[in-house]
Amino acid sequence: MSGPLDGITVLDMSRVLAGPWAGQLLADLGARVIKIEHPQRGDDTRGWGPPWLAEGDDLETTAAYYLCANRGKQSLAVDIASERGQELIRQLAEGADILLENFKVGGLAKYGLDYASLRERNSRLIGCSITGFGQDGPYAHRAGYDFMIQAMGGLMSIGGEPDGMPMKTGVAITDVMTGLYATIGVLAALQERSRTGVGRHVDVALLDVQVAALANQALNALVSGQSPQRHGNAHPNIVPYQAFACTDGYLVLTVGNDSQFARLARLLGHPEWSADPAYATNAARVGNREVLVPMIQAIFRTRERDDWLAELEASGIPAGPINTLTEVFDDPQVRHRGMQCTLKRGELDVPQVANPLRFDGETATSEVAPPRLGQDSDTILAEMGLTSDDIARLRREGVVR
Known about the structure:
Elements: E1 9-13, H1 18-28, E2 32-37, E3 52-54, E4 61-63, H2 64-67, E5 73-77, H3 83-94, E6 98-101, H4 115-119, E7 126-131, H5 146-152, H6 173-196, E8 201-205, H7 206-212, H8 215-224, E9 241-245, E10 250-254, H9 258-267, H10 282-287, H11 289-300, H12 305-314, E11 319-321, H13 325-329, H14 332-336, E12 340-345, E13 348-353, E14 358-359, E15 362-363, H15 377-383, H16 388-396
Parallel strand pairs: 1-2, 1-6, 2-5, 6-7, 7-8
Antiparallel strand pairs: 3-4, 9-10, 10-11, 12-13, 14-15
Helix pairs in contact: 1-6, 6-7
């Protein structure tokens, strides 16, 4: 099926998560994405298991990690350290619209495959470089990984219980957000190119993204001059806005305004709370959280979670269960929205999480499963004018797979 980016070709020379996430999103939006992989090991994440998806006794297993970020792509396995492999990449770049790469600063220049070199052959090419710390600055030469960036960028300092160790998120969220920012930058450059006719280089750094994504917590620090503290599952600026224990589990209560709090007070049997100056406004509740929250917690502990959730829903008070991932994919709303889907790779069923974007009610999720290593090498090379003998020779020489 065609999409908004139908006719756009992306040369995806990235690996692991941030770059591939951007490439997958562009593929979902209709772009042709050619993923360049090492002929022997492929993208690092192919080996980041278990769990594994096996296609048969005579074929490779693929880690679930790889499958989360490479839907909709073609895999060309080529050795860019070889002169012949480098020339193949240059030929592809001549016809490409976008180059995605996440090599360390200068990493592609030694092969003559950096954006500046490729742009000499194709002035319309848009380049997007994703690194830990950006293309300049005192840390530019360093490698950057999500966990480390969560620590350096301040996210861990505000995650975890107040008396516990600072905590990372359960997902490499900085990588995911960096992939999203990279996609936004690329799409903006595409729009500009439609006016100017020339490409642009987009520089995206994990640390920059992490700092930018601190949102209200960043402004809390800048406005107050003090570093926010860890609040566990509580919110620094809103009360009650946290997890509460029930007799059989936990729920999350997200009271976002004073009228919702008044309804909560009535539900909990204490309508007088909403008129008490100590709790009537959010600012007052934040200032008196150490008194109010334990009182709310004591009441929630008297009944089962689902009973509370039903009454909270009936009263128009935002709340929800803390689901496991298996419970998430069994949730009726998640099922209705089709967030779990399956793509075919030959006879193999490849599970996927759908793209959350919809256009005119239709999902933007690509129908093409993540590829096997080198799955499309022959097709792509033949399109470039190589004969079957040429391809066989390159394969014997280890240039392609």
